[in-house]
Amino acid sequence: MTSPDPTDSVTVATYTDYADAQRAVDYLSDNSFPVEHVSIVGTDVKLVETVLGRLTTGRAAAAGALSGGWFGLFVGLLLSIFTNSSWWAVLLSAVVIGVVWGAIFGGVGHAMTRGQRDFTSVKSLQAGQYGITVAADRADEARALLTRMNRNAAVQG
Questions:
Q1: Which residues, listed in sequence order, are joined to residue 123 by a DSSP beta bridge?
Q2: What span, in angstroms and rounded, lies between the C-alpha atoms of 76 and 71?
Q3: What pTM was computed for the model?
Q4: Whole-angstrom Cα Rg for the chain
Q5: Class of 6-45+127-156 in CATH
Q6: Contact residues for 103 (Cβ-Cβ < 8 A; gap 6+)
Q7: What share of the chain is helix, strand, coil (3-state, %, to 5)?
Q8: What is the pLDDT of residue 2?
Q9: Residues paired with residue 43 on neighbouring β-strands, in sequence order
Q10: CA distance linking residue 74 with residue 98, whole number of Å
């Protein structure tokens, strides 16, 4: 399946919310429109970094211990496959070693930044608006369906 050629596409509707754009494409799909000719195109894109909280050496060490513990569990499970007796001791040892080394690396790694980034955050890309683009030869059909969708929403709302 090939994606629509953007040079041969026409924007038939724009929305400020991605969920609304998805609903529009879903409506087109529900009404037997060939959605393989549709794209949702975000424009006015911006990077948003949401700060979750302060990061201390202790928190960095705790996060490192947690991820080290998971890695240790994974390694311990692999090693316990090849152990005939006391597989649980191998598993427990691997988890403990993973927790200790994870905490050390997490704490030391954060301390080495010398306070340059003392917070945790999540980055995301957000668009200002979302356009529904359709192959040019299908644009009139898509516009008619989306107009019907908006009319139905106005009557129900």
A1: 49
A2: 8
A3: 0.59
A4: 26
A5: alpha beta
A6: 61, 62, 64, 65, 68
A7: 55, 25, 20
A8: 53
A9: 129
A10: 10
Listed in sequence order, the residues at least 6 apart from 59 whose beta carbon sits closer than 8 Å to its beta carbon are: 120
- Report the alpha-carbon distance of residue 106 to residue 65 in Å, rounded: 7
DSSP 63-119: HHHHHHHHHHHHHHHHHHHT-SS-HHHHHHHHHHHHHHHHHHHHHHHHHTTTTTT-E
Whether 134 and 37 have beta carbons less than 8 Å apart is answered as yes
The per-residue pLDDT for range 134-149, each reduced to its tens digit, is 999 989 999 999 988 8
Using alpha carbons, select from 122, 124, 148 the residue that is nearest to residue 12.
148
Q: What mean pLDDT comes out for the span 74-97?
A: 90
Handedness of CA 94, 96, 98, 100 (dihedral sign): negative
The domain limits of the chain are: 6-45+127-156, 50-123
DSSP letter assigned to residue 32: T
Q: Phi/psi class of residue 114: alpha, beta or left (left: φ > 0; alpha: ψ in -120 to 50)?
A: left
What are the CB-based long-range contacts (under 8 Å, 24+) for 115-120? 117/55, 118/54, 118/55, 118/56, 119/51, 119/52, 119/53, 119/54, 119/55, 120/51, 120/52, 120/53, 120/54, 120/55, 120/59
